[in-house]
């Protein structure tokens, strides 16, 4: 039987992240792993900003505008007659796929239960939000609040 996975937070530098081949033994390896987690988290926020902008672009190119009550009842309002294969919608779907995959990988990295990985991801998400998404007051999109959707 193999080594058991941690089920509580720990602060050691020995961590296995996502793959059996991604193991850290030294401080240098651990530091590089934390930096990679940080960068991927910042990149996730950048991609989320791109996804929301593609969604805004594809919704602004739609011909029909929803009635004011459609925000309260989004399932009752029929989708616009916009072409689902338009370049804007297709690009938005590709960005959604990439961003969902990155989001789930970030979640799996946090599930390593290493405190350093957790802190690196949360700080990366916060910095990415500050850099790419905190100025989104002009971008209003009714969207799913789930971080990985």
From TrEMBL:
Record-level Gene Ontology MF annotations: copper ion transmembrane transporter activity
Protein name per Swiss-Prot or TrEMBL: Copper transport protein
Organism: Actinidia rufa
Keyword hit for Protein transport: no
Topology of the protein relative to the lipid bilayer: Multi-pass membrane protein
The entry's keywords: Copper, Copper transport, Ion transport, Membrane, Transmembrane, Transmembrane helix, Transport
The organism's place on the tree of life at top rank: Eukaryota
GO cellular component: plasma membrane
Broad class of where this protein is predominantly found: membrane
């Amino acid at each position: 039987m193999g080594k058991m996975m941690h089920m509580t937070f720990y602060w050691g530098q020995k961590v296995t992240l996502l793959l059996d081949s991604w193991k850290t033994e030294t401080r240098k390896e651990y530091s590089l792993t934390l930096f990679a987690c940080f960068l991927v988290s910042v990149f996730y926020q950048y991609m989320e900003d791109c996804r929301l902008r593609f969604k805004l672009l594809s919704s602004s190119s739609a011909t029909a505008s929803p009635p004011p009550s459609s925000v309260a009842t989004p399932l009752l309002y029929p989708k616009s007659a916009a072409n689902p294969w338009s370049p804007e919608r297709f690009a938005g779907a590709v960005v959604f796929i990439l961003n969902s995959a990155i989001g789930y990988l970030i979640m799996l990295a946090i599930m390593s239960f290493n405190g350093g990985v957790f802190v690196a991801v949360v700080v990366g998400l916060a910095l990415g939000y500050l850099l790419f998404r905190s100025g989104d007051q002009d971008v209003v999109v009714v969207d799913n609040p789930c971080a990985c959707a």
